[in-house]
Amino acid sequence: MQRSAYKYFSVTIPAGEIRRVDVYSRFLTILNNSAASDPLVSIGGQSYERIPQGISIELPDDENFTYLEFYNDSAATLTITFAVSAGRIYDARFVASAILSVNATSNVLSTPAAIAVTTSAPASPAIAADSTRRAVMLQNNGSYPVWAGDSNVDGANNRGLCISPGEALTLESEAEIYLRSTGGASTISLVILQKV
Asked: What is the mean pLDDT of residues 13-33?
């Protein structure tokens, strides 16, 4: 007797009951399950194990099972759909449903501005906090290093990020930014990239 290469089953099981399906195969795939929890399945008399939808079980080449048992331990009727075959089963179905949030903001560069930076501890931020800002681009056009950071910025103690003369720094931050130079007053060119 020739056996089928693929066989499809749909079994409905009342709450608390076991259904036995006599089938000779070595490969099982759970295609669908109507219950909230995964069904308990016994393959050829082995212990009951939960097998989620989409999972396949393949026995070694020289082994086959002759029956499957499905135990519905839930409080509601369960309908399980599965397939068995002589070889592997590939279920290429894929359905995704969700709301996808897309950040559709664009960017606008501000008009470049010059900021005079001194060696004194800053009393207020050189650049205020801004939740619509994507990035700040700073270029040191002066003759002395400028340090960027929080209110504790201090180049003499290596606190902050150093922008050497002629160098530029981009900070992707919405926070306030303090500036302080070392060695003498300096000038920073500022461009802000805004979210629109």
From this structure: 92
Q: Which amino acid is at 76?
A: A
Which residues form the domain of 171?
Answer: 107-195
Contact between residue 72 and residue 39 where contact means Cβ atoms under 8 Å apart: yes
Predicted structure pTM score: 0.48
Looking at the fold, whether 72 and 140 belong to one and the same domain comes out as no
Residue 97 forms part of a structural domain: no
Q: Based on the number of CB atoms within 10 Å of its own CB, is 96 exposed (0-12), middle (13-18) or buried (19 or more)?
A: exposed
**10: which strand partners?**
81
102: pLDDT strictly greater than 70: no
Total domain count, the chain:
2
Cα–Cα distance between 140 and 163 in angstroms, integer? 6
30 neighbors 91 (Cβ within 8 angstroms): no
Nearest-CA neighbor of 146 among 114, 108, 174, 103? 114
